[in-house]
Design brief:
A four-stranded antiparallel sheet has the order 10-9-8-32, with no helix packed on it. Strands 11-12-15-16 form a four-stranded antiparallel sheet, with no helix packed on it. It has a four-stranded antiparallel sheet with strand order 17-18-19-20, with no helix packed on it. It is globular. It has two domains: 314 residues, Kelch-type beta propeller (Neuraminidase, 6 Propeller); 55 residues, no CATH class. Helix 3 runs antiparallel to helix 4 and helix 4 packs across helix 7. The protein has 518 residues and is mainly β. The protein contains seven helices and 32 strands. The relative contact order is 0.08.
Length: 518
């Protein structure tokens, strides 16, 4: 085996009265010889002797050459008052003329003025011949050097805008007009890593983070990121303040009062409009949850009255880019199902007269059936949640049955245990909270909120706080292990609800933080 590797770099610098060319080359040769040592012992099935030892001989050779060439030539004078645009155009014309004449091109500097030539160009000092390391460092530190990206000594403008490198006072920069999107973000990231451009790396990571779902589905981007980079773009996506988001899904009066999404600000005890909900997303009996800081909605029934038909469409909303998108439809329409997120997947559980369960893989953008509910028990008006890496389903037609799902074994089982709190409405007395301990395997009351006529509500969990939001109700429950309790006062209710309220948790970016719309 013989391997030869060589590396060459040519740099041309323009000075007041001379052109200096620095070059170096490095050659590495590897020769591997495999041989058998003559000592023999043992014989194979045919009675032939087998070699006792086998070895390899390595020969490694390295060669490095550095040189510098100095050529005297006067550089035309550019008046000091010439603007940047005109001076660059003038130099480009000269460069093209030089290229047609077969001469070495002068290099363009950015935001620098070339002084007039001296009366005696021959008196300019000759720079010393740099070594390989010194020559590279000189390029990085010198303000009048530039490395062409498309070969050496060839000046041809690219057909489409591409990120380029321009030498500056002490570091390399990218031109500001460069457009960064999903089509070139990974190539720009690789270039930024090679040139150690931290600001450009952050810009590429930001595009990937703001459009995480599209990156997740693109093997040419996500498949080439290492584990640390994958965690980084997801962590950046979750950077911000966590809010409770509530969707008012109005099916009856969609024209007069369109459906919309709001979020609750605890600091000011106030609700704020986030975005409208598109008519395609609005349906009766739809389900909603959040994952990767996206809001996912599974449709219920479209239309009204006799024209109402079940729908299997699914959508997602990105709060960072404020864009709604449609994702892969379900295999079955599931009105009034429950939607939860577990281990980077979505689970659509049950529905009207359905005991099947589907799981959504965001990387493949596909829904697939998983283990159905046990004993063909269809769940309607039920509640589902995730705790300690498992899904718990109870309530509604399940009555007092608690179903427990493990994604590792893809199996359901009926279990009275499992940590969690359950809220019960008691007409005339108030709201009761029951807790189930894993060790005691028993439900027991842990808190009560006294109210004469409680209305139905939904819950959203923010840390250790559980927000209970109804049409005219907004309470906060502290799920403390020692002393669970409701807040002392009611919070601001949802403003003028017109339809069904669906709750989720989103992380919203800080004010003034620009996002990328790709």
């Amino acid at each position: 085996l013989s391997v030869t590797s060589d590396l060459g770099l040519t740099m041309t610098a323009s000075d007041v009265g001379s052109d200096a060319s620095y070059s170096f080359s490095s050659v590495a040769k590897i020769q591997v010889e495999e041989s058998y040592i003559g000592e023999q012992w043992g014989r194979d099935g045919a009675g032939q002797p087998l070699p006792g030892l086998k070895g390899k001989v390595y020969d490694y050779y390295v060669q490095s050459i550095s040189q510098s060439v100095l050529k005297k030539r006067s550089v035309p004078y550019i008046p000091p008052g010439t603007s940047r645009t005109s001076s660059l155009g003038w130099v480009n014309e000269k460069l093209q003329g030089l290229a047609t004449q077969g001469m070495e091109p002068a290099l363009v500097t950015r935001d620098t003025a070339v002084p007039p030539p001296t009366e005696n160009p021959e008196t300019s000092p000759e720079p010393p011949s740099p070594g390989r390391k010194d020559s590279i460092l000189r390029v990085a530190d010198s303000p009048h050097l530039q490395l062409p990206l498309e070969g050496f000594g060839v000046l041809s403008p690219p057909e489409s805008p591409q990120p380029g490198l321009v030498a500056d006072a002490s570091f390399f920069q990218t031109p500001t007009p460069t457009h960064l999107d999903l089509g070139n973000c990974y190539e720009v990231l690789c270039m930024a890593k090679a040139q150690k451009l931290g600001h450009l790396q952050e810009a590429a990571y930001k595009v990937m983070s703001d459009n995480y779902l599209q990156v997740l589905r693109t093997p040419s981007i996500y498949g080439r990121l290492n584990a640390a980079e994958r965690e980084l773009i997801l962590r950046r996506r979750m950077k911000g303040k966590m809010y409770m988001a509530t969707a008012d899904i109005n099916v009856q009066e969609s024209n007069l009062h369109p459906s919309h999404l709001c979020y609750y600000d605890e600091a000011g005890d106030s609700w704020h409009h986030l975005c409208p909900v598109p008519p395609e997303v609005v349906s009766q009996g739809c389900a909603m949850c959040s994952m990767f800081n996206y809001l996912f909605v599974v449709s219920g029934c479209k239309g009204a009255g006799r024209t109402q038909t079940p729908s299997n469409r699914a959508f997602c909303y990105d709060p960072l880019t404020n864009i709604w998108r449609e994702i892969c439809p379900l295999n079955q329409a599931r009105p009034r199902c429950k939607l939860v997120a577990l281990d980077g997947h979505l689970d659509a559980i049950g529905g009207e007269c359905l005991y099947t369960v589907e799981r959504y893989d965001p990387r493949r953008d596909r829904w697939a059936f998983t283990a159905p509910l046990p004993h063909d028990t269809f769940a309607v008006a039920h509640t589902a949640t995730v705790c300690d890496g498992e899904i718990y389903v109870t309530g509604g037609t399940l009555r007092r049955v608690l179903l427990r799902y493990s994604a590792r074994s893809d199996s359901w089982r009926v279990s009275p245990a499992g940590g969690g709190d359950r809220f019960h409405l008691r007409r005339g007395t108030g709201i009761g909270v029951y807790r189930c301990g894993a060790k005691a395997k028993l439900w027991y009351p842990c808190a009560t909120y006294a109210t004469s006529n409680p209305s139905s509500f939904r819950c959203a969990v923010l840390g250790s706080l559980v927000h209970c939001v109804g049409r005219d109700l907004h309470l906060r429950f502290l799920a403390d292990h020692v002393s669970p309790r409701f807040g002392t006062k009611e919070l601001q209710p949802f403003p003028s609800p017109r339809g069904s309220l669906l709750l989720a948790v989103l992380v919203l970016p800080e004010a003034g933080m620009a996002q990328t719309r790709v």
